Amino acid sequence: MSVPQAASSLQICRIMRPDDANIVGNVHGGIILKMIEEAGCIVGTRHCNIQNGDRCLANLVRVEKTEFLFPVFIGEVAHVTAEITYTSKHSLEVQVKVMAENILTGAKKLANKAALWYVPCSLKNVDEIMDVPPIKYASAELEEQGRNRYEAQKMERVETKARIEEVMSSPPNPEDPPKEQHTVGFSQSSLIHLVGPSDCTLHHYVHGGVTMKLMDEVAGIVAARHCNTNIVTASVDAINFHRKINKGCVVTVTGRLTFVSNKSMEIEVLVDASSLVEAKEEKFRAVSAFFTFISLDKDNKPLSVPPLKIEKEEEQRRFDEGNARYLQNKVKRLANKERQQ
């Protein structure tokens, strides 16, 4: 059985409040990411439960590159639209757009867009992956494009997992000698969080949106420490969810600068987890991503970013890899701009 795409879409909205924003009134990128994931989870779970059999919950496994096109401010209404755009046998792609509305003037702007991948897990057995009901496509071309995206993300997930197996070292000791300003060690930051019931899904695993919010907070601290100015999230490269994080786990979210251009900072954010009660369980890598931040002046205009001082060979390797990603993304942006003209 297949269902039309129109039945596989959802819109949620809410007004942005002061506790959603940073000290200058911009809504935290992590709040937007959390809303995006909630919409994706709802539409994905609803779609996967239209068929007979065990009930299931859509679990987030990957978020493609996410662009933060315009900031969202306190008092604006965020309209989050999620639509299922591709289904394979055991996964589905959800594309999400965030429109910010000024309810005083009626003006609207496209603030964010993202693509997320989910797999449906049985409520009876979280390790059992359920079949995904197929959707109807408006054309064979759209189906082929979706299939290409599916194959590409599957390959990238394998490559990423092979690259990030090493668990991060412990957070720096406050009693250690201070690091030199504008070095990787100076701005590197960690956040430790105990996963409680309010963080979790029906499976008692942490919501993907909760994790992404923590990651954005840590990346923001790293960026602010490096340039000592107002900073905002500009984009997020693919977020890969490697392993589930259970209720009762302690997660360590660590961010470190990998690359700095004239006006942007790339920050690698890694999430490691371990059980608080199972002493035998070793710490494991759960999530990884690269966040890009920019520095702003008091008028929200981009500022130059202090250069990154490289101290170690490993830091130079990560810097070179970040530079390659920066140039690749720059080419993609220019190509997209030309297509739109």
Keywords:
5 helices, Thiol Ester Dehydrase, Chain A, EC 3.1.2.2, globular, six-stranded antiparallel barrel, 2 domains, alpha+beta
Task: Report strand %.
Answer: 25-35%
Report the uncertain regions: 1-6
Computed Rg: 20 Å
Instruction: Classify the helix fraction into a percent range.
Output: 25-40%
Distance between the termini: 40 Å
> Would you tell me the overall average pLDDT?
89
CATH topology of the largest domain: Thiol Ester Dehydrase, Chain A
> What best-fitting shape do the alpha-carbon axes yield?
globular
Please state the structural category.
alpha+beta
Please indicate the count of domains: 2
**Biggest β-sheet: strands ordered side by side in the sheet:** 2-6-3-8-12-9
**The CATH superfamily title of the largest domain:** Hotdog Thioesterase
For this structure, what is the CATH class of the largest domain? Alpha Beta
Number of helices: 5
Number of strands: 12
Structure in words:
- By secondary structure, the protein is an alpha+beta fold.
- The chain has 2 domains: 5-163, Thiol Ester Dehydrase, Chain A, CATH 3.10.129.10; 184-340, Hotdog Thioesterase (Thiol Ester Dehydrase, Chain A, Roll).
- Helix content is 28%, strand content 31%.
- It contains 5 helices and 12 strands.
- It has helices at residues 29-48, 140-163, 184-187, 208-227, 313-340; strands spanning 9-15, 56-63, 66-68, 77-87, 92-101, 108-122, 189-194, 230-236, 239-241, 249-260, 265-275, 284-296.
- A 6-stranded antiparallel beta barrel has the order 2-6-3-8-12-9.
- Strand 11 and strand 12 form a beta hairpin.
- Helix 1 (29-48) runs antiparallel to helix 4 (208-227).
- The radius of gyration is 20 Å and the shape is globular.
- The protein starts with 8 loop residues before the first strand and ends with a helix.
- The relative contact order is 0.13.
